[in-house]
Amino acid sequence: MTAERLIYLPLGGAGEVGMNLYVYGYGKKGRERLIVVDLGVTFPDMDSSPGVDLIMADIKWLAQRADRIEAVFITHAHEDHIGALPLLLPQIEAPVYARRFTGHLGALKLSEAGLATDVLKITEAWPETVTAGPFKVGFLPISHSIPESAGLVIDTPAGRIVHTGDFKIDRTPGVGEAFDDDLWASIAAPGVRALVCDSTNVFQPAAGRSEADIADNLERLIAGASGMLAATTFASNVARLKTLAEAGKRAGREIVLLGRAMRRMVDAATETGVLTDFPRVLQPEEAADVPRDHLMLLTTGSQGERRAASAALSRGKYLGLELKEGDTFLFSSKTIPGNERGVLRIMNNFSERGVEVVDDNGGAYHVSGHANRPDLAFMHRLMKPKMLVPMHGEHRMLREHANLGEEAGIPSVIATNGMMVDLSGDRPEIVERIDPGRTYLDGSVLIGAMDGVVRDRIRMALNGHVVVTVIIDESDEVLGDAWCDTMGLPELGRSNAPLLDVLEEDLSQFLGRADAKTLRNDDKLEDNLRRIARQSAANEIGKKPEVSVVISRLSA
Amino acid sequence: MTAERLIYLPLGGAGEVGMNLYVYGYGKKGRERLIVVDLGVTFPDMDSSPGVDLIMADIKWLAQRADRIEAVFITHAHEDHIGALPLLLPQIEAPVYARRFTGHLGALKLSEAGLATDVLKITEAWPETVTAGPFKVGFLPISHSIPESAGLVIDTPAGRIVHTGDFKIDRTPGVGEAFDDDLWASIAAPGVRALVCDSTNVFQPAAGRSEADIADNLERLIAGASGMLAATTFASNVARLKTLAEAGKRAGREIVLLGRAMRRMVDAATETGVLTDFPRVLQPEEAADVPRDHLMLLTTGSQGERRAASAALSRGKYLGLELKEGDTFLFSSKTIPGNERGVLRIMNNFSERGVEVVDDNGGAYHVSGHANRPDLAFMHRLMKPKMLVPMHGEHRMLREHANLGEEAGIPSVIATNGMMVDLSGDRPEIVERIDPGRTYLDGSVLIGAMDGVVRDRIRMALNGHVVVTVIIDESDEVLGDAWCDTMGLPELGRSNAPLLDVLEEDLSQFLGRADAKTLRNDDKLEDNLRRIARQSAANEIGKKPEVSVVISRLSA
Fold this sequence. Notes:
- By secondary structure, chain A is α/β, with parallel strands linked by helices.
- Chain A is 30% helix and 26% strand.
């Protein structure tokens, strides 16, 4: 008889920042009952995923075990934790638990996707708990950069797991719940078997700062601005929005929210009661009547997203509003690595318009939502766990966090996506490796990252595309010549003749020489035509394009 | 009779960091004699220039005035100043002047491109000058992050221009010439009409540090490392390479240079005498016999370039060498904005191998080659120019630099690529705007950035590509059905039938209904087939692909 075991399996978010999806299991090996924590997305980029809309974990492992899934828990409403809810839930079919604000946004996502929302169960914070098979799970309020974030207290027959979710130690967060030392200490009191902990800011050496620490700086900046003023931050950072809007109001400015996500978040926070006293906002069309030095815009797109309000404003008029010489644009945000180009483009666009751009300026106008190294060490001391499992971070972050744990005498493990960890023993032990994989939302279709679809797009982007068409008649003779169509290739090459002519000439020469056996065999003919087209292009333009061959056979 | 005028026209490098190319002219309007300063490249990215090899300024304005070009001057051998020499010089056909080390590398580039090298004239430093039409030009040694950088003293009938080139104020640069206050003061003494000045680091508030400031840090780090040690920096930063190699030697390590650019730079610096006493290096194949804790690798690819030595090492064995648990990899470099993803990929790869990664650590292991804000102000005070023209920077940098000048009472101008500035008067005045443009090296072909070639590639990358083939017989009837070929699109869509089948069905239905007039008209037929294919795909997979239509008409 095998013993029960307690397992942890990250399918997303461990070895990267994004698309969080963690699985816990308890039971006999291979028959564990499962719970899922978070269903997040990550965002595509041109380098590796052009044309893709969203990226999420491949959950075939879970889908094959759908009958063993007890529940899904969503820690908070950031897209990298909730964004895949409408996309992946159909494969999971389990109740989803979340706190009020998170659940409100989750329900919006489900209903927009045409899915039923009654699967969503709103749960109060600890000490309320949800029983899900062998698990008893409670939402423990924790400070982060979005309202109602929660860590999870996961009680199992093998002991207590504390899954921090994303967090910082903020005792004056502005909006929402302050970090509650006594509450967290009370959770630790009975003993914590495993602390599964956010690693994002482990390389930040100084203790994190509070949302309250920047309020005065923002107030001064906003009070001193002339002309129109616009500020961008993450739409979900409701505390920041409130600080900005209130400072704007005090400086005699009317507030306009620009960007769908901004309005949605303020509405959701207001409707669920986490946000009170948010200043009245004007609609963009009402702003036309307000003198420009009495306006303050709060805009989406702090990460340089081309279609968001900040980028649109940087290019010119947007919904009738336009920033000009003497106006100010504030990034109350930090640029996430990889987004620098888009952010710099906005800054330079504004510079061309004479708009003064202010960035976070070494932290004066932004604080992070994640715990820095000393804050992580504080959490370790507070929880006194038997073992530490760093999550939510690139490999180098998990590694550094595990080192931090080991230095404090806590057995720690580096487990990236697909590594199943047994938490039942004295130290975390990797017991199995699942091929983790990624799923892309591409238009309206879910495709596998390794299906080859995106690889082909990247190849066309790098090499261009040639289509070769050949018609073969009823007696296996070539009818006319081969002809070509190119996309993404120069018109003229080395010989200064049109590339198309050179390709068609070389292909027709081959067809003229080809024997009947070749002409009868589609595969052989296609291989030859592709090879010749690539070689011909390489001679002419110095690159080998992707080649599609279309052979049309006329039937007798 | 119009008066002579002195003009400045940036064609690259002003409004961006990269592809520097500046033109000066003197003479009657429209008949100015011209000199060119620098022929640089910039590097492509997947977002805006997939598949492109190099980017440089579009010089049709210059090429149309080739008979008026007296000479080209290259300030230093960084790729953004010399990289386009073999690509653009054929359109310019003028002598090229450079100092010894720069000229050596320039000659290598020309001969590798099969071009004559006798166009290159090696010039000694100031007080030697070159007479080029109405200009007398001297190379003034200045400290930067590559040997033998030079500012240009450009004497004209309208007065003296000082073109700084890239620079920092470094009085202890390790290799090459220290900044010489007396020399620069002597240049200023007769009066400077215009200072055309590097703007890259204008947002750095503290005075720049010397190459010598990090030598002790590097020495300590290298002496303390166990296992194998690898360090990356720009190959052209010969001073850094020497500091690293010497510290390695003192720690009892053999030095191996990995990456073609690294060997080329050390060879060039040694052959031209700017580098002496560089430690003897081992070939990679000799390193096999050396214990790993007696090895130090100097590797190319500090910016995360996938094909360079650093990235190759991060993926595994490279030329027989491999970094493992307990080894150290040092970035003695700063990540240029936009390159973060590639650099992080290397860091995480090494993390997975257990290799300790050390980055510049807030400046401990790297100093910039560009003058910071206080250093720029120092240069302004030293030169006392009548006017300031900020160059070499994004728009926001030029703007900030111009503000700095104006605050000090120096008339300043923001002139980006294509803006011709008249320097003859009391303050710089923009007198004409040239459409600046960019040229791409794509394989072996030069294409215009706006030719549409790269736009089509980006569209295929985002949307996929459908090829529709239709055969029309001698009597303008459709022969068989339409058929499709897709690339970069999912196989199955909403209806769970193959996408190809759905597309072909929809197209064939249209063809069955199409009237004779449509079938006779290629353009009309093509438009209709494209529209239907796009709409059909939109229904099935939620995206509208690029569509190429191939209509084959059988002649009677």
